[in-house]
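> forwarded from #structure-qc
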């Protein structure tokens, strides 16, 4: 026997037991995005490597060590997308969606990062992301955050997640702050770890994000970008905060929140949970007013967020918030004898047409009543529908409840349709 193959480490199969939860999550979020007027886009999973280098930033974990990059047969360097913002901006630019227009877009799909797999951290994972273009006002930042808050409410997650926000200022402000920060860390060079020393001149803000316990005292005392914001940026951030206050959404200002991607300015935010262990960030995003121009477009502001579907699904499951989900068939059709087998499939289709939403499974294996009955029971269906030779000639179907002690009934097709409608209501 030849050896069986298994999936790549960190890349998971989703089996029916999980897809039922995923489909629920996806339908809740789709309705929510529709209700806010956001429109779906779908981008390729593979893009030119340069796109990610130019947008996410050369000195980030993602670009430095996590990208799945390979050469195409024609020698071009391609990368499996590690996130969706870059591709969404590329697509919007390529198709002329953002010049002098506003757009509110969303996408969902697989992303790829070569990270060390553990609970909540995978090499193939799924995001639902939102990107909005052409709106400079802080109301957009607040809308994005409130939209996520609404989603948690719909999913019952509100008590289990908390919001952290910060302002990264604008490019000029960050440049001045950056110099201050470099000078501050240079004065204590011996206290920096290797990673931080390497980043000191290329990406010093990321040092603030370090989890190294030995550097925490130094980081705590570092100058804060929040204290170096200009009037306009400060007012922008205050408006975001006031809009959240007015909507009753609680938040914590975390002046060390810098995010792991370089394109952000002004508002950044993360939703974090304490119920998932180390990988507790379920959603992150912010404003990126320079990115469109950086990727060759006319200056156009943008903002968005993305959430990790695996983490949110795990949270819903761990907290047992989804108890009544099942995608078992409602009814299981058993056919006894050749005439019933031939006419049964057409009957099943008529029933599906007449009862929208009905999940009807037809037994296609045949055999004795007992065997089919066992399979009907195992399918999880509420009722078995039985057609034999007698039923074919009389035009009736036997409806046998499988989960209650109610009696079996012989019904004509019209009465059966009524019963099935009641069953799925
Ligand atoms: P990000 O923070 O890199 O942001 O990822 C967003 C979310 O994706 C994270 O909060 C987390 O829930 C999930 N995630 C990230 N990496 C993994 C992984 N290895 N395994 C499982 N889940 C993961 C972005 O990707 C930005 N593009 C968000 C954005 C959109 N900003 C503006 N627009």
């Amino acid at each position: 026997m030849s050896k069986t193959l298994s999936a790549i480490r960190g890349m998971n199969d989703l089996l029916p037991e999980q897809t039922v939860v995923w489909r629920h999550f996806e339908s809740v979020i789709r309705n929510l995005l529709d209700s806010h007027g956001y429109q779906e886009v779908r981008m390729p999973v593979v893009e030119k490597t340069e796109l990610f280098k130019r947008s996410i930033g050369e000195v980030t974990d993602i670009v430095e060590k996590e990208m799945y990059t390979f050469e195409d047969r024609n020698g071009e360097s391609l990368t499996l997308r590690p996130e969706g913002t870059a591709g969404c901006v590329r697509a919007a630019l390529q198709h002329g969606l953002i010049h002098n227009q506003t757009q509110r877009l969303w996408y969902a799909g697989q992303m790829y990062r070569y990270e060390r797999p553990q609970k909540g951290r995978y090499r193939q994972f799924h995001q639902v992301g939102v990107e909005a273009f052409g709106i400079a006002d802080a109301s957009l930042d607040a809308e994005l955050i409130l939209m996520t808050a609404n989603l948690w409410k719909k999913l019952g997650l509100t008590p289990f997640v908390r919001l952290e926000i910060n302002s990264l200022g604008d490019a000029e402000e960050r440049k001045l702050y950056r110099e201050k920060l470099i000078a501050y860390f240079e004065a204590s060079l011996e206290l920096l770890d290797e990673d931080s020393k390497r980043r000191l001149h290329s990406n010093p803000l990321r040092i603030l994000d370090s989890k190294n316990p030995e550097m925490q005292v130094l980081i705590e005392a570092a100058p804060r970008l929040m204290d170096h914001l200009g009037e306009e940026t400060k007012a922008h951030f205050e408006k975001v905060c006031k809009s959240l206050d007015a909507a009753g959404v609680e938040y914590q200002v975390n002046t060390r929140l810098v995010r792991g991607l370089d394109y952000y300015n002004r508002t950044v935010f993360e939703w974090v949970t304490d119920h998932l262990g180390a990988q507790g960030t379920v959603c992150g995003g912010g404003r990126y007013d320079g990115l469109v121009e950086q990727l060759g477009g006319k200056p156009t502001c943008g903002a968005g967020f993305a959430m990790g579907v695996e983490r949110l699904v795990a949270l819903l499951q761990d907290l047992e918030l989804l108890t009544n989900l099942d995608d078992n068939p409602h009814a299981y059709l058993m056919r006894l004898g050749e005439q019933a087998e031939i006419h049964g499939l057409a009957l099943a289709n008529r029933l599906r047409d007449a009862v929208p939403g009905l999940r009807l499974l037809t037994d296609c294996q045949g055999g004795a009543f007992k065997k089919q009955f066992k399979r009907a029971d195992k399918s999880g269906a509420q009722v078995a529908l039985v057609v034999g030779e007698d039923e074919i000639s009389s035009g009736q179907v036997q409806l046998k409840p499988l989960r209650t002690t109610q009696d079996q009934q012989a019904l004509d097709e019209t009465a059966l349709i009524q019963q099935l409608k009641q069953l799925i209501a």
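QC bot note: Residues 368 and 374 are 10 Å apart (CA to CA). The chain has a mean pLDDT of 95.
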